[in-house]
Amino acid sequence: MLFIGIHIAGVGEALKVMFVITAIAVVGLLIFAVAAVPLFDAGNLVDIPPTDAAGASAFLPFGWLGIWSAVPFAIWFFLALEGVPLAAEEARDPERNVPRGIVAAMLVLLVTGALVLVLATGALGAQALSESGNPLVEALGGSTAGVVVNYVGLAGLVASFFSIIYAYSRQTFALSRAGYLPRALSVTNGRKAPTLALVVPGVIGFLLSLTGQGAVLLNMAVFGAALSYVLMMVSHIVLRRTAPEMPRPYRTPGGVATTGFALVVAVLAVVATFLVDPVAAGATLGAFALFMLYFALYSRHHLVAAAPDEEFAALARAEEELT
Questions:
Q1: What is the value of pTM for the model shown?
Q2: Residues 6+ apart with CB under 8 A from 147
Q3: Closest by Cα among 76, 51, 82 to 64
Q4: Could you say which of 38, 110, 210, 297 is the most buried, measured as most Cβ atoms within 10 Å of its Cβ?
């Protein structure tokens, strides 16, 4: 209620709070890194006995299949990065600032993700880390730094809540405005915040959290994200082929080649989720199927032609007919 309430107060207020708590979380990671360096032992990186899996070695104890199975967990290092473009309509000079935000976020996550991956494993050990429920704190033992990181880590959780709330509300708002979801979800308050788009998914998420199936819910999020990556990569390739003259203020480095590589990785991630948690993957597919059924039976007959999304599609269809 507190987090959603801040978002209802306005995007400026929410993003200011998000920036502060994210900065605190980053400081916590830096404290962890400094404290973990003296505890680092390279031998801990390879302390899992190799199995008889294909390609298994001291460095890859579970072989090539182990890499594939780890992909859904690796995605968590970078999950929600795709939420940055959702701020385009509320950003000043989005053509310039949104790409900068994406690149800056990638760089921060690459550095902090590498620090956590290497230092936590080197301090605690790969075997112990694989069974840990609080890896950063356990890696530092009972030290003062471990206590500080434990409490500062809460800021990381809050930052995650804030970014997820912002992302789901803007996605729900856009789908509702175009008619894909009930129109009431795109009604905004006096502060221009989409109230129901914030509250309704938040209530659903809270009720799901009461099930106690945290691991399943996290894997569902990963599966949904990986599937969305597949769709985004396909969309990018199709648009580059069918609308080459479309104005593109920001062009993907490497173009279709980069997107093609990302598409292959995304497909592997989708399949890997079935290897790790078939229940979560199946539940997410079921949710997708229900939304597709809703679209087929109802929303496709009630799309809003004046919505930006639909106007763009109409223009594309008109240009296709002219050519």
A1: 0.79
A2: none
A3: 51
A4: 110
In contact, 230 and 270? CB cutoff 8 Å = yes
- Quote the distance between the C-alpha of residue 20 and its chain's center: 20
Dihedral, 226, 232, 234, 236 alpha carbons, nearest 10: -150
Quick: pLDDT tens for 125-158: 999 998 888 889 999 988 899 899 988 888 878 8
What is d(CA 241, CA 256) in angstroms, rounded to the nearest whole number? Answer: 9
Give me 235's structure tokens.
């969309």
- Max alpha carbon distance in the chain (Å)? 70
* Residues pairing with 124 in the sheet: none
Residue 47 dihedral angles phi and psi, to the nearest 5°: -95, 10
Query: pLDDT tens digits, residue range 50-80?
Result: 999 898 998 899 999 888 888 877 887 787 7
Cα 48 to Cα 43, 56, 63, 184, 320: the distances in Å are 10, 11, 12, 53, 57
Backbone angles phi, psi at 181, to 5 degrees: -120, 165
Give CA–CA dist 4/113, Å, rounded. Answer: 28
